[in-house]
Amino acid sequence: MMTSTTQSGSAAAGTTIQQLVEQALALSSVSGCMVIGEELTAANLRWAGNSLTTNGQMHSRKLTVISIVDGTDGTRSGVASRAISGPDELAALVTASEAAAQAASPADDAAPLVEPYPHTDDWDAPAALTGIEVFTDFAPALGRAFAEAEKADRLLYGFAEQLMSSTFLATSTGLRRRHDQPTGRVELNAKSRDLTRTAWSGAQTRNWLDIDVEAMVADLATRLDWSATRIDLPPGRYETLLPPSAVADLMIYLYWMASARDAEEGRSVFAAGDGKTRIGETLAPLGITLCSDPAEPGMAAAPFQLTAEGGEESVFDNGAPVPATRWIDGGVLTNLQRTRNWATRTGQQYVPFVDNLIMTGPQADGNGGGKSLDELIAGTKRGLLLTCLWYIRTVDPQTLLVTGLTRDGVYLIEDGVVRGVVNNFRFNESPVDLLSRITEVGRTERTLPREWNDYFTRVAMPAIRVPDFNLSTVSQAS
After folding, report:
1. Domain annotation for the chain: domains and CATH numbers
2. pTM of the model
3. How would DSSP label each residue in 152-189?
4. Tag placement on the chain: N or C end, fewer CB within 10 Å?
């Protein structure tokens, strides 16, 4: 059975999202104002038991107004955000933002709003849209996969989603910027007919032309075959291969915690004491590089700062250019994220968050150098292969020790051959400490993190070999 769902939050006929942004900005009556307008369209497919179950499309508009109020005791900011259907809703939104600013305490991250600067954005171009037609090639390939799975007595479950977000930023300084961000992901689970064996695969995309359903399904079939043999293992430290997806989940968490202020105030794993950080220290003796670039091919991200929530980012930095940044260069920690406010207070450089992350090994040459996961398996005398990690949580922020569970397949490798599936484990590891213990790095490839793909999808990672990954207890998770 297949059903279709459609949601709509379109604005009044003839009113563009840019016009709503400009009208909201014109209503502002405080010291400074920023308005962020987002036009979001989405399409999705869902399937279970070798059958498409639902497909849907969505279209919505949201405006965020950030009001800035200067006072004798400091600068305050207030944020109000909601779905918008038409101009008659703008006055209440702006009023709510200004009231929030008036009631707020002075902002600890206050900075002058970004002034206009040259760029090539086409502010007046229509918002970019997506729809169900994005799956024109993917859907038939998925149908063929269903048929093959039925013949092989396997079941396929999963979903595919494409988002297109057109975001427009206007500020009272005169800055106007826009960014169109396509984000696609697919998650595919294969199970044996009796549901006792399971395997997972995922991929990210911008346009669905690079998703190889046949290859994904073939990989899942191989892992289900591996799972026909069950081997119980005790907890312990094992030589372990982590595929790109699992590496992504750990490195994203490290990246989120890479705040210069937290380090300089002694609150993070990157603190060196006495107000210093570990910048300049070798974290990965093997020569690993961890970097971000908003212009990265296939994973392009917003080239300017864009946030409505603050946190480690600052709303005062909205619109500031985002450069390519090397966080770890040849194994050495070279940068931590730093707001403009904190950069001014500490006399250092502003280093913004970038919405992608790339990790490469010392052999990276820009041409896909490095071993594949299959080659790493072939070179393993005895060890484990993890599929993915989930339910990752912090145990100790001072060391960035995290815990979590393995899922959908942990396999025993002996003499270069996978012998069977083993039980799941809880793990305890610090991604920072892990960097110092990696003994081999594979080929970097675009991947989909399992744990964090609701928040962060634009990632390219290698598979890695760790001689002593800490699998602390046995887990009953499947």
Report:
1. 3-223 (3.30.2290.10), 229-478 (no CATH)
2. 0.94
3. TTEEEEEEEEEEEEEEEEEETTS-EEEEEEEEEEEEEE
4. N
